[in-house]
Design a protein that fits this description.
binds 5'-O-[(R)-(carboxyoxy)(hydroxy)phosphoryl]adenosine; Nucleotidyltransferase, domain 5; five-stranded mixed β-sheet; binds zinc ion; 10 strands; 2 domains
Amino acid sequence: MYILCTMITMGIESSCDETSVAILRDGRVLSSLTHSQAEHAIYGGVVPEVASRAHLERIDGLAKAAMEQGGVGPKEIDLIAVTDSPGLAGALLVGVSFALGMHAAHGIPITGVNHLEGHICSLFIAQDGIDNTNVPMPFIVLLASGGHTAVYKYASFGDCELLGRTVDDAAGEAFDKVGKLLGFPYPAGRAIELEAAKAPNDSRPEITFPVARFSDPDKRYCFSFSGLKTAVKNFISKSGEHYINDNRPALCAAFQRAVVNSLVCNVEAAAAEYGIKTAAIAGGVACNGFLRSAMRKRLGGGNVICPPPSLCTDNGAMIAMAGQLMRQNNRLRFPVMDPGRGI
Ligand code: KG4
Ligand code: ZN
């Protein structure tokens, strides 16, 4: 359990294609504003230079609006937390430079935050009627986003053991690539989920896709999604346009089933091996309703923690929460940009 002191934190996130600033007081969101960059949709993926420029255009206005909505000025802010790794170098640079500017101009303490640790800390943000400072530990956490997919054993803040990660594509990347094959705009995760929901359960039982498994015991909690993407690609070219047009929902459902099965199997196996009852999901793919219900079905409804979708995709609130916990655990560190550093 974390004991909270009265503390106001500004969280700044700009590692990829979301510019987001939030104000948190003691783990509770006072304001959280996110701009998702639509500029990338026509390219089918994030263009780094376009992302940096778009962050630059928005960050100042978002920070001002977040302070206004949160009812705080720079004088009331106790800590600035900013994502400094991993991410796109130019995109990170915009958030870090802005945060350093606030730090220098107003003398506010600052910390760099690892984006992946930020996603996990979204679990501890208080929700209406739920005090998430009480998340039972240890728990197994699945972090599935557009850039990362991994399973961790989380014992306490700072004690987070990586059990396995993807050896190729991230789960969200697989959704986005398959979406592109099917003509959905980037990012395609939500569009695929909505399309899949139109398919009755067993409308096309002949459409199944393989789920990668590793025989090497060291990789037992690892994921691989590039073979699945190739299988979908081959299926599309083999089946022809007519069949695909008539069976798009069933195809999306089969693909989604394969990804979700792979994600849930690893969490379930890790929970069983370590004798841990509580599991959690974080990252953009955790918005997926089919993943949420599969986790609850397989691990028991009361044992699974899912943050609301607004806290699953990239946001400043999770970065502020991580910063607050870093301060409480004497782990503040000056931002050091390292686009490749994970946890
Ligand atoms: O965490 P996030 O906002 O950014 C990264 O850190 O990557 O995750 C974005 C990813 C995208 O790949 C997007 O397609 C996926 O999350 N995503 C979903 C859903 N909503 C977002 N994937 C599956 N189902 C969804 N409903
Ligand atoms: Zn993310």
